[in-house]
Design a protein that fits this description.
By secondary structure, the chain is mainly alpha-helical. It contains five helices and two strands. The protein has a two-stranded parallel ribbon.
């Protein structure tokens, strides 16, 4: 099992930005392990979820990635248009210096890791 975990960690470290396809692309209040994994791992992401999902994450205490990542897609009501906007943003991000981008995002990523750990810890304290 440890060997599998090591291979998974190696694979996960090979890309800089995750594209999350959440289970319900219409519900901005539902987040699964896909989003949690990015928050905990300190990985930036774009998310295919319900309109307003990034605002919901901000309401929960997390930080998102504007202005480095164009988050206008999060306000688009049409799922197909939202996906097209995400594709366009991926194309734009591919032209950037990824190391500089990740360095600029580092304070946000650390904040999200800490916030996630605190939220999980508080959740289990309430049980």
């Amino acid at each position: 099992m440890a060997e599998f975990a090591d291979r998974l960690e190696d694979l996960y470290s090979r890309y800089a930005i995750d594209i999350i396809g959440e289970t319900d692309c219409h519900n901005p209040n539902m987040f699964t392990e896909k989003t949690g994994r990015c928050l905990l791992a300190g990985k930036p992401f774009l998310i295919i979820n319900g309109c307003g999902a990034l605002q919901r994450l901000r309401d929960m205490g997390f930080k998102t990635f504007a202005p480095w990542i164009n988050e206008d897609y999060d306000q688009e009501l049409s799922v197909s248009k939202r996906v097209t906007m995400i594709q366009q943003e991926i194309d734009r991000l591919a032209t950037l210096d990824i190391d500089k981008l990740l360095a600029d995002l580092q304070p946000i990523l650390v904040h999200n890791q800490q916030t996630y750990r605190e939220n999980v810890s508080n959740y289990y304290k309430q049980k």
